[in-house]
Amino acid sequence: MPESRPLPSVQLNAVSEADSVQPSDVLVIGIGQDLAIRDSVKVADDLTGGAIGRMIGSGEISGKKGESLLVPGGASGGPDLILIIGTGEQVDRGVAFEVAATAIRQIAKRERRRIVLAIDGTSIGDVGDAIVAGALSGCETQAIYQTGGHAFFPPASIDFVGLTQTQIDRGRVIGESMNFTRRLVNEPASAVYPESFVSRVTKHFAGTSLQIEAWDEHRLESEGCRAILAVGQGSVRPPRLLIIRHQGGPQDQAPLALVGKGVTFDSGGLSIKPSEGMVDMKCDMAGAATVVGVMKAIAELKVPRNVIGFCGLAENMVSGDSYKLGDVIETRSGKTIEILNTDAEGRVVLADTLDVAIQHHPGAMIDLATLTGACMVALGNEVAGLMTNSDDVCRDFRGAAEAEGEPVWQLPMFSLYDEKVKSKVADIKNVGEGRWGGAITAAKFLENFVGDTPWVHIDIAGPAFVDSPLPHRDAGATGVMVRSLVRWIENS
């Protein structure tokens, strides 16, 4: 197996407005739809002998979000090129993140050393760290195994005009945590499987404040995690359960729990997927990878809160040992599951993982999973679905996601759906009734394993891994929900 390209390592600096006229490969200037000639725009206009102002006057520059124009720097001894990028009507955190990422992705089509980023609105509200995180996110690509002439070149350094070192430090943590999540998801299943997932995370967190505990197949058996073992028994790669602890608060503070689905490859098992449905199933561990990214961020930010992450890891493969349709599994909690579709395996893995999590008596718990195609049918590829037994916790998380510009939508959890997952031969079955309400019936299945713990289930099947690029991000893994979860934890 070849080694993938290293994660981006970019020098980040805080600089003054005066530094933007110094030599650089590219000066990035943000301009809003009001087309106001703010300080950074005036700098660019002076450097180009008034060309920026003339292009604004002629309508060549509109300020629409993401619209860009690359022009020569003009003045000798200044930037070689100036990238004008629209910031839209208002620079909130989501816009700041996307605009910065869009700018870096455009610049990275050629080798550059020094980039200077001056986006209008950096002094309006708390968006500076989002600009930095977005810029770093723009440096990562899914082309991690390309050899020879690369088509993507992250800059050696990025200078941020008008930002504080505190904003840069925080933005670096968030951006690098997102990129670590994305890299775990983008790696092929031959590189990231349950055991190697654990070893990569353990190695990455060595020397940090995070405490790592990994359960192998023998510990899983002794703990009664028969559901995780059942899903993984068809693979030569045995399953694992990874527990990551951040002790940021007082010893007696009830922790928050993050639970991630970590199916490192999903063939569908005996309910095998067609080739086109299997090709991107390396991404079925995005929930677990997101938990890892969030734990990395809160540890480096020294968030004063106790948080425990749980990653249920298994490969769902086809062999003579595969779990079968009609099997009945006794879970760690004692509840029994009738298996009617081996391709509805993520919820089976989560059944035991959630039970382990609630034994730690969390004050609130959020799970993340690329769980259902039904959620994508309902909400599309860019929106995550929320289902909950606690409107208070769900409302708090929705607020965090809205602040970070990550779209989510709450789906109902009416009691009438409970009947849809009842089995005639066991306590529950692992699929509902046909196609209808599939995202909700999957959440209703999970609700059987959370007890009275306030809990939110986030179905990230759509936004976690995408087929097509957008201006601000490549195709492949997106790192969705890392920013929102960090904010939710900090606000809790």
What is the arithmetic mean of pLDDT? 95
Please report the distance between the alpha carbons of the first and last residues: 42 Å
- Reading off the top of the CATH hierarchy, the class of the largest domain is best stated as Alpha Beta
Rg: 24 Å
* Neighbour order of strands in the largest sheet: 7-8-10-9-13-17-14-15
How many strands?
A: 19
| Shape call | elongated
Commentary on this structure:
With 492 residues, this protein is of the alpha/beta class. 33% of the residues lie in helices and 21% in strands. The two termini are 42 Å apart. The protein has helices at residues 39-47, 51-58, 93-107, 128-137, 165-186, 194-204, 217-222, 226-232, 275-278, 286-300, 346-358, 373-379, 391-404, 438-447, 482-491, and strands at residues 11-15, 24-32, 68-72, 79-88, 114-118, 157-161, 211-215, 240-247, 256-266, 306-316, 328-330, 336-338, 364-369, 384-388, 408-410, 428-429, 455-459, 465-466, 476-477. The strands form 4 sheets. An 8-stranded mixed β-sheet has the order 7-8-10-9-13-17-14-15, with helices on both faces. The mean pLDDT is 95.
Structure at a glance:
The protein is built from 15 helices and 19 strands.
What attributes does this structure have?
6-stranded mixed beta sheet; 8-stranded mixed beta sheet; elongated; 15 helices; Aminopeptidase; 33% helix; 2 domains; alpha/beta; 492 residues; 19 strands; Leucine Aminopeptidase, subunit E, domain 1
What is this structure's SSE topology?
Blueprint: E1 11-15, E2 24-32, H1 39-47, H2 51-58, E3 68-72, E4 79-88, H3 93-107, E5 114-118, H4 128-137, E6 157-161, H5 165-186, H6 194-204, E7 211-215, H7 217-222, H8 226-232, E8 240-247, E9 256-266, H9 275-278, H10 286-300, E10 306-316, E11 328-330, E12 336-338, H11 346-358, E13 364-369, H12 373-379, E14 384-388, H13 391-404, E15 408-410, E16 428-429, H14 438-447, E17 455-459, E18 465-466, E19 476-477, H15 482-491
